[in-house]
Amino acid sequence: MAGAIIENMSTKKLVIMGVTLLLFQAFAFMVGGLIAPSPTTAVHYLAAKCVDTSKHRQETKWFMPWGQDQCEKIRSFEEAMAKKIEANNIVFAVHIPLHYNEMSPWFQFMLVILQFDIAFKMYNQIEDGALVTVDVGLAYRDDPTSEWTEMAHSFEQRKLNCNFTTAKTFENEGRYYECDLLPFMEVGSVSHKYYLLNIRLPVNERKKINVGIGEIKDIRLVSIHQNGGFTKVWFAMKTFLTPSILIIMIWYWRRITLLSRPPVLLEKVILALGISMTFINIPVEWFSIGFNWTWMLLFGDIRQGIFYSMLLSFWIIFCGEHLMDQTERNRFSVYWRQVGPIVFGSFCLFIFDMCERGVQLTNPFYSVWASDVGTELAMAFIIVAGICACLYFLFLCFMVFQVFRNISGKRTSLPAMSKARRLHYEGLIFRFKFLMLVTLFCAAMTVIFFIVSQVHDGHWHWGDHEVQVNSAFFTGVYGMWNLYVFAIMFLYAPSHKRYGDEQSSGQCITGDHGANSGEDIQLTTTITHVDAPTEIYKMMGKTAQE
Amino acid sequence: MTGPKAFLTYASSVQGGAQSGIQECKHQFALDRWNCPESTLQLSTHKGLRSATRETSFVHAISAAGVMYTLTKNCSMGDFDNCGCDDSRIGQTGGRGWIWGGCSDNVAFGEKISKQFVDALEDGHDSRAAVNLHNNEAGRLAIKATMRKACKCHGVSGSCSIQTCWMQLADFREVGNYLKMKHEHAKKLEMDKKPARAGNSADNRGAITHAFRNIARTELIYLEDSPDYCVKNQSLGYQGTERRECLKGDKNMSQWERKSCRRLCYDCGLRVVEKRIEVVSSCNCKFHWCCTVKCEKCTQVVTKYYCARKENGRRSHNKSKRKHRARRH
């Protein structure tokens, strides 16, 4: 790793590169903020109350809330009371989307949230820990006149978490409880144009099903999907970023293989970071437009998980390799203690994700949070992952602290060293501080933009333009980490300068030919006579002995 | 969509909305001297609403709010085929705008149609019309002010790295409570009386805009002081507080409820009559979430209190006599 490009680059060039990256960064923000619409849309639905008049239930019958052959509807349950319609004959019907609209594969996913409007009645209150059992069917069709095809059917239980904020008196009868949002359905691909949900709340007094759940007045649903425009912008961005990272990665690895020594651990880790970035970049989502691949959501989660754990491992190993003490590392096994929590933590999250989104592949209505055991299990996984994250950050902070302590230690002894050794250490210190600075900057930016986008949901007005803050956050932060990986692979690639001119300098993209002119201020010069890293370690050992 | 077709599509929702507004009004003013009588509420005929008192300002606001609320709800139910997406800010029709960036939400639709229908009832250009329109707007803004934000996290493993938030309608009772509060703090519009009385001449438009300048859009305003609601007023269609029910005796009641008999009866020079009524009510019920109730019938004796006129005005006569005597001594 001796003699990376970053050390041989002149300040001027470093600044030029920094500015170029910042311009790309600004561009990434602008693409999200100005071109893309907001990332997701929430659409409200109020279920129509259909009456199932048939004596014996037919499984194939679907109830349409509006349009042609719509069901027999009632406006309110007072009407049902008068007509002597029973709870078991009522079907709540919701058609997604509303009139004249169509769903589209560009929406990527659709999740539906369920809300009950439950009126407070003195003699019919919600019992503690009440469970609602819903009998729900989901159907689709692609033609407004064709028959509905069943997609899923399930009996689901949801816990009613409601509280009544005002005094429980006769005066306040009829007011609604405030209930928590209930996760209801999640589908990983939206490949059909029309969807229909039929919800029943069957009552069985003997089995205590749907008893003591208060007086339900309405069922409201909110469906959330990704906006098609955002998906398009996102895909375009991924399609553009994939070759950029791929090219720099190949270039980087070629440089390493051209060295006379085998690659060291840090170089391998940087390559792994590049590979995981490419893995997340490759726009396989394009296939979701043509194929009905419901596992795409889960796959996306896995890809993100791999990238995050790679990034976290990279930081640990980078710090470790810059510790500047006498122990020889350069082996992955040295870091098992630090990397272990990352792997374990992400494994926990993976299991949790498989439990939720994995099961949803077969039953879109499934939710881990619906059952007590599931909730406890999910919480356990999340808590373990959280502990792992805390452990990791403790390790990382400790390592960074160690590096800084060693740096200050080395600083005092620098003037006494031989020139070559001094330059070597200065190089190490510079490389470390640079990455530290850039990483902190990126992390801070991510956190700041995250907070801004959370506080300022929606959009800003900027002159006549409407800036979508949320979209800008996603594209901007995604672009930023791409640029981060790009910059690391470029700047921490071995510099070709020390091979003299026998290496072709044309393979370097931005190049550092100018450095040869000698006019620019050199930040550091590399040790030209030390080539193999093993020698450096030997030397480091020597210094330690001294 | 305008004209008769639009009218037919929305009419029932508008009517239902106005009705729910009135119901809410009746609930909110159940223990006030003015109790939201039917006569004030005929939205289409102007007779009842031609005065612009504090109370009519509430009626205007709650009706406009009710219409907007119902339209929004019915829009979510799919009752209208053009709701949400017809001419939203991003939306080209035919679903393209919808696929690109979604449609405007249903509340915007409800607001727009409510504006079209309710504000159209006000055809004058005088200060009274301006006040009514302002109160309609305040009612619609009350819906927005009481809306609540709900969020759902759906990032990696359900984390909050991606979050979608939306605004949802509050219970209509909350809108009523909010407007009741606004009613209590309603502001009187200070204007030169002469142009206001002169009617719809274009000259006073400047005066109207000037008067409105200092008033927030969310506040209710009125022009005239309320009449004495204790007494019957046939021209206003108001019955007075006689024979009104008031509440007494329960310790759990709020201050407002506890003082209701004083406010409705005593302060209006009426007395309170106690009536014992046998009420047949249902008890020991078994409920389903809808429609089915299995109950036993129980009879209960309930004491109710009503305002009544004092017998022949004898007591008040006595009082004045006593005073008279006192002076003599």
UniProtKB/TrEMBL annotation, chain A:
Mind telling me which InterPro entries this protein's record contains? WLS-like_TM, WLS_GOLD, Wntless
Membrane-spanning segments:
233-253, 265-286, 306-323, 335-352, 377-401, 428-452, 472-493
Its GO biological process annotations read: intracellular protein transport; Wnt protein secretion; Wnt signaling pathway
Residues in a coiled coil are: none
Per UniProt, which keywords does this protein have?
Developmental protein, Golgi apparatus, Membrane, Transmembrane, Transmembrane helix, Wnt signaling pathway
Q: How is this protein situated with respect to the membrane? A: Multi-pass membrane protein
Family affiliation: Belongs to the wntless family.
Name this protein carries in UniProt: Protein wntless homolog isoform X1
Q: Organism, per UniProt? A: Scomber scombrus (Atlantic mackerel)
Automatic annotation (TrEMBL), chain B:
Task: Provide the alphabetized UniProt keywords.
Answer: Developmental protein, Disulfide bond, Extracellular matrix, Glycoprotein, Lipoprotein, Secreted, Signal, Wnt signaling pathway
GO MF terms held by the record: cytokine activity; frizzled binding
What domain of life does the native source organism fall in?
Eukaryota
Q: Which InterPro entries match?
A: Wnt (IPR005817), Wnt8 (IPR013301), Wnt_C (IPR043158), Wnt_CS (IPR018161)
Instruction: Report the main location listed first in the record.
Output: secreted
Please give the family membership noted in the entry. Answer: Belongs to the Wnt family.
What does this protein do, in the record's words? Ligand for members of the frizzled family of seven transmembrane receptors.
Q: What is this protein called?
A: Protein Wnt
Q: Which organism is it from?
A: Scomber scombrus
